[in-house]
């Protein structure tokens, strides 16, 4: 242990708080669903110990906020402000110490994490060595990419709020390009939008952005909705497996009814030089390629001495403890947690209320599990510290919901199947209720209300991604002969 004289004693019936000789540090790696909710509950349940200096909670996260990913499609479509789909960690975790940085390695045998911070990257100094007593691993996941030629140069991800806003600006800029060119090849490529991946992220992002672009066409007289070509590429034989076969077929018919070209059992072969080549032989000039073909465990797990499964996730018990350890826990996308309520394997969900079971009877990597697991995980840490029995994680399947654009959606909740506007309302109601903090709930609800009263905002602000570009160009122009700093 890094703190050799740190001792947690089992409380008597009369004393329910922890007695220590030195501060016990709980390190939470990741500030997403699991990380934030675990730290939130720990700071509540260990309030006395934190105030007295007996316990310290350290959260390490590359960004000082948690992103509520189910609202990314609406943020991309402009229905919700990007500021309101993120939750500032410093505000919601006042009882914790937030360290903005990225964990590079974890030596659990020595109870030490190596952390790279913005300061160490800026100065080129050595990474920090952060000792800990108890470990919570919740780094989440990263996009699962394949070695597709041209993907790194031309592909756009859809996992962060920055990517969502960048995609919105990009789509609107393509409409500007198409309406201002006389070159038919440029116009065709600008109006072709390819999305790879038919899960939650791909279907919802395409549906919301297609809705937005269709609306924006009224301000581009040279473009009609029929001029745009929206393509969804999915390697399996169905879309949205999370909502079940019947509802998945409804989603397919709904998308095709909006002239979305859905290619099932098809893979992306190449996208070099903005030419999308598919496994069915199609060759499509396209200036927009969005990659949403699944996720994988965070690569930091490869730099630990903890046990992992074949998919790179941490092997965990039903109590969310990493197998073979007494003081390391994990949950969410990074953990392979057995599903004790599973009746059989089902396709895993990506976010939102999805199926309860993933492959081989494991909990699916979705937000429904992440939030519930965080509560159990935090309670088990407290139980470990106080010497009381820990609980196994069990859940009750709530259902699946998905938005297909304004006033359109599907829902399969508690055995009931709902389509259209009612499903869209259920989708919004569910995610609003799960949005962290009352502040964010009110802001999102206010934006939805205003969106119903006023017209959409369709102004692209792509220059925000490179705010110094114009200034740098002006500086370069003034560096010729005779240029100077004076007047």
UniProtKB/TrEMBL annotation:
<dbReference type="InterPro" id="IPR036188">
    <property type="entry name" value="FAD/NAD-bd_sf"/>
</dbReference>
<keyword id="KW-0560">Oxidoreductase</keyword>
<keyword id="KW-0285">Flavoprotein</keyword>
<protein>
    <submittedName>
        <fullName>NAD(P)/FAD-dependent oxidoreductase</fullName>
    </submittedName>
</protein>
<feature type="domain" description="FAD/NAD(P)-binding">
    <location>
        <begin position="25"/>
        <end position="341"/>
    </location>
</feature>
<feature type="compositionally biased region" description="Low complexity">
    <location>
        <begin position="340"/>
        <end position="350"/>
    </location>
</feature>
<keyword id="KW-0274">FAD</keyword>
<comment type="similarity">
    <text>Belongs to the NADH dehydrogenase family.</text>
</comment>
<dbReference type="Pfam" id="PF07992">
    <property type="entry name" value="Pyr_redox_2"/>
</dbReference>
<keyword id="KW-0520">NAD</keyword>
<dbReference type="InterPro" id="IPR023753">
    <property type="entry name" value="FAD/NAD-binding_dom"/>
</dbReference>
<dbReference type="InterPro" id="IPR045024">
    <property type="entry name" value="NDH-2"/>
</dbReference>
<feature type="region of interest" description="Disordered">
    <location>
        <begin position="340"/>
        <end position="368"/>
    </location>
</feature>
